[in-house]
Amino acid sequence: MAAHIQPAGVADKGIVGETAAPPPVRRRRKLGSGIEIAVLTILAIVMLFPVLWMLETALKDTKDIYAVPAKVITGWTPTLEHVKNVFSSNSPVFSGFKNSVIVATASTIIATVLGVPAAWAYSRFAIKAKKDQLFFILSTRFMPPVVVVIPVFLMFRDLRLLDTLQGLILVYAAFNLPFTIWMMKGFIDEVPAEYEEAAMLDGYSRFEAFWRFTMPLLIPGIAATAVFALIFSWNEFVFSIFLITDPDTRTAPSAIAGLIGGTTINWGLVAASAMIFAIPVLIFAFLVRRHLVAGVTLGAVRR
Amino acid sequence: MADTLQKTPPTAAPAAAKLEAPPAAARFRFLTDRWLAGLFISPALALLVFLSIWPLIRLIWLSFTDYSVTRDVPASFIGFENYADVLTSPVVRERALTTMIFVVGAVGLQTVLGFAIAFLISRRIKGRGALTTLFLIPMMLSPVVVGLFWKFMLDVQFGVVNSFLDSLGFGRVEWLTQQRLALLSLIVVDTWQWTPFIMLIALAGLTAVPKYLYEAAEIDRASEWFKFRRITFPLVWPLLLIAVMFRAIEAFRLFDLVYILTGGGPGGTTETLSFNVYKVAFFGFDTGRASAYGILMVIVVIIATNIYLRYLNRLQER
After folding, report:
1. What backbone torsions phi and psi does residue A68 show, to the nearest 5 degrees?
2. pLDDT in tens, A253-302
3. Angle between helices A267-287 and B143-153 (to 10 degrees)
């Protein structure tokens, strides 16, 4: 507006008393910002280096892996030898990968099928001592796994579930259930109960109202929750080494850990299997990155 | 909601229709709210009772007996003897100290670093999403994978860390087999993996600070430091404390990294409480004592968490 009234050129000169040159703060801030970027870059390199180093090791020749001094950037040619070894017929880890897929998938399905309806019921109904029940459910997740595994081990020995995938699936389902319930309760709380009430006014029963109207809205939340459960089961280690010692039924983490048991360690194979083991997790984590905060805090923090 | 309009005959029915319950209503009517709640919750609770409560009860019972997995004799009740044993044992005291050093060192480092990274990222406008994703990678990896990464990198002979030190003129360091240094290595590895956790939560807090507060401060010509101290920090602090609690609980029960990296050595200097329980239970075959040990650990966690949460609540009321 002012530009119309003021004669041309006046606005450029600024207010009396203001210096023509930009205030010195500006430059200092620019310098500060440069330092910030440098610090961030260094930190990012430090954080990513181990991952890149493992990837490099997985692709290196055995000879280059043990080279002293280490060949960091140049001097080695990539080879897929170790990656092929992971999938070869006499590979000690391949059956581990197969078992891990079975266990992670089955336990996630069980946890989701049991957890989503329970979360809905906790979200919608007035249940006696609801807060206590929910807190109790969460608290089972905070027990040290090494402690829990002692009685579970004894119980599985009596039930002949040791060394079986079924046993591990049950344990992982129970391990993921508290998480599923808490996470899903958060998602369900965000869907107004009025939708269901309106459907019930239209003549649907409560169950149908849930199934037909709330459920479709929950699909993205269920997907995110299931992906987290999948990651947790896939990565879990303590239960898997204690409950399964048989090389045929053990899961990938204990199979990979078993590679370093001997006197000589084939680091190329270790690196290749670790990378192959980590890649699905990273992809899945990328898919649910929007829910990461809620996911890693068991739904306690939501933003 | 378009769904509602398409699928429900009752709302679309002409006015002439008889006042009759629509066909859909007949189905599942027998499921009253009470039944439905029970039906939905009980399977989940049943699984938890079967694999969490029942084992816990069994653990408590075992902790009062001299049961051992290898002996085939029925357990006999010995009262609080196991508890007294554990509480008076000098080894346990040492392991508790190791665990304390680890928890304080690792969680402290993670908190400082994680918050610093989050703060730096939150000040960037470009590339914030990509940076966050990159920084989060370590957290998503399995502890086994992380342990192996670092065991290889810290290897005395072919480890890349020693290789760097060598070319810089420092000598080789036995990261995992030298007393004192081994625990430090554990702290470093845990920090590497879990700094992103603190960062992620701190970042959530930082991005939620309302912009107008900074604008108001800017008008008052507040310094950067003042803005940080009086606006950013107080608003992020409660959330950061929750993150610290999560980390402390997990660091307290650290097992997998120790198992992979050091196996408790050298000379038991990296043996955490969890690892000690494992040794008592699966090498000493002293199941009863290990149970008492484990229950004491759980009690410590419960008490500490309660005190902490009370403090947190008071902080948030203010």
Report:
1. -125, 125
2. 999 998 887 778 888 899 999 999 999 999 998 888 888 888 887 776 76
3. 140
Residue A24 distance to chain B (closest CA, Å):
14
Residue of B51, B123, B165 to mutate, testing the A interface (most A Cβ within 10 Å of its Cβ): B51
Q: Hey, what long-range contacts does A125-133 have (CB within 8 A, 24 or more apart)?
A: A125/B33, A125/B36, A125/B37, A127/B37, A127/B41, A133/B45
Q: Are residues A49 and A134 both part of a single domain?
A: no
Position A237 in a domain: yes
DSSP state of B65: B
Across the interface, of A125, A151, A212, the residue whose CB is closest to B59 is: A151
- Would residue A265 count as lying in a domain? yes
Which of B27, B39, B152, B227 should we substitute to test contact with A (largest number of A Cβ atoms within 10 Å)? B152
pLDDT in tens, B204-249: 899 888 889 989 998 988 888 898 899 998 889 988 998 999 999 9
ipTM above 0.85, yes or no: no
Topology of domain B110-262, CATH: MetI-like fold (1.10.3720)
- Number of H helices and E strands in chain A, helices first, is 16, 0
Distance in Å, alpha carbon of B149 to nearest chain A alpha carbon? 6
Q: How far is B300 from A143, CA to CA, in rounded Å?
A: 11
